[in-house]
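Work Package 3 (structural annotation) set out to generate three-dimensional models for the target panel prioritized at the project kickoff. During this period the team completed the workflow that converts sequence records into discrete structure tokens, so that structures can be stored uniformly alongside our sequence database. As a representative example, we reproduce one entry of 689 residues exactly as it appears in the project archive.
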Amino acid sequence: MWGLGGLLLWLLLPPLPLPAGAAEHEEVARQAIKLHRGRGAAATQGRRWVLDGCRKLSGLLRQKTVVLNKLKNAIRAVEADASLSDEEKLFQVHTFEIFQKELNESENSVFQAIHGLQRALQGDYRDVVNMKESSRQRLEALREAAIKEEMEYVELLAAEKRQAEALKHLQHQNKSLSILDEILEDVRRAADRLEEEIEEHAFDDNKSVKGVNFEAVLRVEEEEASSRRNLTRREVEEDLGLSMLIDSQNNQYILTKPRDATIPRADHHLIKDIVTIGMLSLPCGWLCTTVGLPTMFGYIICGVLLGPSGLNSIKSVVQVETLGEFGVFFTLFLVGLEFSPEKLRKEYVTDIAVEQPQVWKISLQGPCCMTLLMVACGLLWGHALQIRPTQSVFISTCLSLSSTPLVSKFLVGSARSEKEGDVDYSAVLLGMLVVQDVQLGLFIAVMPMLIQAGAAAHSSVAVEIARLLALAGQTLLSLAAVLLLCLAMRTFVVGPYCRKLHAESKGNKEILVLGVSAFTFFMLMVTELLDVSMELGCFLAGALVSSQGHMVAEEVASYMEPVRDFLAIVFFASIGLHVFPTFVLYELSVLMVLTLSVVVVKFVLAALVLSLLLPKTSQYIKWIVAAGLAQVSEFSLVLGSRARRARVISREVYLLILSVTTLSLLLAPVLWRVAIARCAPRPEKRSSP
């Protein structure tokens, strides 16, 4: 291999008799020599140096021309040879063509280097932008050269394989084969034909597509594959292909679709990751249950321990997060399943309205007023801190939600008021949480509008307002179409479908699970096609199933909850992969101030709204209800992950939402116990007769 000086000499050669494309190459060489001489080359030694390089390059190019002519004659001789079969002719001609291509590419590389030197000499070394552009062009040239070399190497491997097969076929012809060997040989040929038919040629089909970039990647073999020393290089290259690719941006890739579809494959990284999460989630969940915390924290801790801030043992991070998305889907389905109009009417209108007619009104108006006040506070703080309105609306809406499972756990065993005319705080609290769940579905529905609203900004206020109005109109039309579809399905489809599932699932419960899952995925795809979020489709699927009656909802929930629970474990563990304890420790004072501010604001706003809605005789329960609503719902983690992915919020805001949500849920039991101890009604002692 030549040194750097020899390469520069060759790049500065005078015009030579060149093959195809010689005129262009000659002009490039002339310009490079002119620039080189203008910069002051050495007098005597420099000329001799250049002349020696010229003689070497001239001899090599003449030799290349002679070899090309010999290859052309060899190709004509092979094509005219009647003793060779068509397959042998095709193989030999293809081999000669590969060698021709290698010679031409080598020559082109030399003159591409000359062109790069010419561009570098014409530029200014103090101009960083120019140097960056030159480096980018050289990088693109190297990428293209690497791709061409890779293709040639693959062609040579294929030629080698065909040559081995031809030799094997010749050996089989010279000896007698048993019946079994003949059958196996026929099966092998059929399998080869099948592999050629189903091969997609994805690389060749996409390499010229607009927007496709060539990237340099590292291929890291699996530890198990590298430990098998008895394998040849070819056997390693034709292995299952589950090695990892790493690009220059440190992104890691794992095989998604293999070239050979006849061999079954499994992603062992993903299997190990799911097994590890399942095993570690159990002790983490037990620990949180022991100390009186929701098991959700245990699953997040599991993700923290296995993630980048812990053991860093999760390899298929994207695949784990994708599987966790199904936990979100089924969680929202069960939330919709709990939102049964018949159930709500029975619990909050029929039973409660007779004795406490104001509970339903408080449950409906309270969360709406709280959300509006939280959004107003968020916009004011956002304007003061120069935060975009879309971010302010999103953050304040996320923080306005409260955790239904956590509050339901608080209410177990709580004392209820026995005074006549008093409002039951548990009924008010659960009613407000149900309405917040409905608000969650609506907010998920308008998230695409927020994403599009924050995607671009216009200098003109009128244009921005017009764009926002157009987006709002589009969202309302989409929601109207979804609601009309739901009404039609509730009237004509859902009833017969549920009855058919119930009849078919007797003694075969997997039919019920599969049928409900398929219906959920159908609604998910429908809302996605109507440009509404997929999560809303899952919520509506649950609401449609619950409209068929309490018995149907209970039966479906009993079979779908285990599926939801396992997938929710994976989801919360995937959230833990993005929680960094070092960040919390470094910013603990800031996070504590933010968390206390959010808790205090929610507590004050809830108490203010309830003081306006509650009757005077039940004003004391506003402190208990406000304490139950003062934390942030775990669904803010779901919304935050969606907004971070869509770049509605920044990385820093996402980390703040994760931390504030976690800390507020940790503070919730303390605040609830204080409120119950000071404000809960005491059961009256009855005197013995």
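The longest helix spans residues 128-174.
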